[in-house]
Amino acid sequence: MLLKQQLHNRCRAYLDNNIQNAEAVIADAREAARNETKSSAGDKYETAREMMQQDIDLNNARLLQLRKQMDVLDRIAIDTASDIIIPGSIVTTTSGNYYIAISAGKLVANGQTYYAISIDAPLGMQLKGKKAGDEFIINGKKGTISDVL
Fold it and tell me: Most-buried pick from 43, 84, 98, 139 (CB within 10 A)?
C-alpha cells in the first residue's frame, strides 16, 4: 500500500501544481485586463481585452477539468486491493507499469517508472476488469498483464 500511496500523492501533486498554474494565469490575465487603458487605437484595446478574456475562459475551463480530475482522484480508495483492474490499481504489464487513476503522465516511485492513466483512456478501457495473466491489445500491439496490486 505504500507504493499506491506514493503514486496517489504524486498524482495529487501533479493536479495541485496544474491548478495553481491555471489560477495564476487567470489572476494575471484579470490584472492585465484591469490595467489595460483605452488608447486612441480603440480596436487595439478591444482586441487585447478580448484576447485576455479568451485566455481567462480557456484557463477557467482547464481549471474545471482539473478539479473534476481531483474529484476522481479523491474517490479512489488506495487501501483497497483487488485482483481485477479498477481505479487505484497498480498494473504491471509487458509494455510498462501503470497506476490507474488520472492521466498524469510519467511518475517515478521506488526507482520504477509508472504511467498514471485514467480508466477512461484507451489503455485504461482495455485494462479495466482484467486480471493477471490476461492479454490486451493497444495500438495493434499485444500485451500481457503480469500483476495487479
Answer: 98
Listed in order, strand segments (DSSP E) in the chain are 90-93, 96-101, 105-109, 112-118, 135-138, 141-148
Q: Are residues 8 and 38 in the same domain?
A: yes
Q: Which of 40, 75, 110 is the last residue of a domain?
A: 75
Looking at the fold, whether 11 and 67 belong to one and the same domain comes out as yes
Residue numbers of the domain that contains 128: 90-148
pLDDT over 90 at 92, yes or no = yes
Question: Between the CA of residue 5 and those of 10, 20, 110, what are the distances in Å?
Answer: 9, 22, 12
**Looking up cell 491489445, which residue turns up?**
137
Q: pTM for the whole thing?
A: 0.87
